[in-house]
Write a structure and sequence with these properties.
single chain; alpha/beta; Nucleotidyltransferase, domain 5; 2 domains; 6-stranded mixed β-sheet; 11 helices; about 15% strand
Amino acid sequence: MIPEGKVTEIYFIIDEFFKEFDTIIREHSLESVKTKKRNRKFTMCESEIMTILILFHYGAFKNLKSFYIFYVQKHMQKDFPATVSYNRFVELQSRVCVPLAIFVKMMCLGKCTGISFIDSTPLRSCHIKREKQHKTFKGIARKGQCSLGWFYGFKLHLIINDKGEILDFVITPGNVDDREPLKSMDFHKRIFGKLFGDKGYISKDLFEQLFVDGVHLITKLRKNMKNALMLLHDRIMLRKRALIETVNDELKNMCQIEHTRHRSLDNFVINILSALAAYSFFPKKPSINTNTDIVDEERWIVA
């Protein structure tokens, strides 16, 4: 069940965003004198469509069609009095793809605290044995490898802070190296301080590049590498890197960010964006209490 107050809160924030968004688009759009366009209003506005998409992931529902038909149209008539058929709703989703991406980037990302964690997680398009039969993402998805083996699809690269808030994200094909977004996509432009990652981010050139930009990359060492001194605080924070694994787990199992039922690229992107937006509205996120957890860990190590 979704609390009624949460529905009102999410809709209010989205509606205020669209008022500002429509004003800016109207001021910077070029109007043609020769062609006249009809300004007929749709039965459901963009704010309602985006709110329903975010509520689907917020409520941890498994199937959008069942959620829309059996929950929204039956139990949320007070909040959404004029709804369209499900097929029409799917068609209208494409109208909110660009506004949803801007909304996530502007309204749903947290602030850097100087302690950040980075990781990537696979988004499987289909089973690896059916990669040659898959047609929806043919030419876009790629075959990649993670700690669980080979997969076919995409990668979601995340950077979070110690409060569990998402600082930035990038979607790449499955065969892209984890270090590539940091090297060529300015993936670290929103962060400063220390960035903790796994052994997949080990690179001397990447370390120097990030250090110049004010980011200190910290990872564990491989077995064939020389030992190096590390601050006790950094050693403890590396042990707390499981925080981002918990965030990935919530995105996949609660927000349904990964499934193999996509029939178009637009719906795939909208599903990811609405899931990230829904996660930002969670009242409780996995986090680290730097005042107590770090002190207790230091006492345990010293003892």
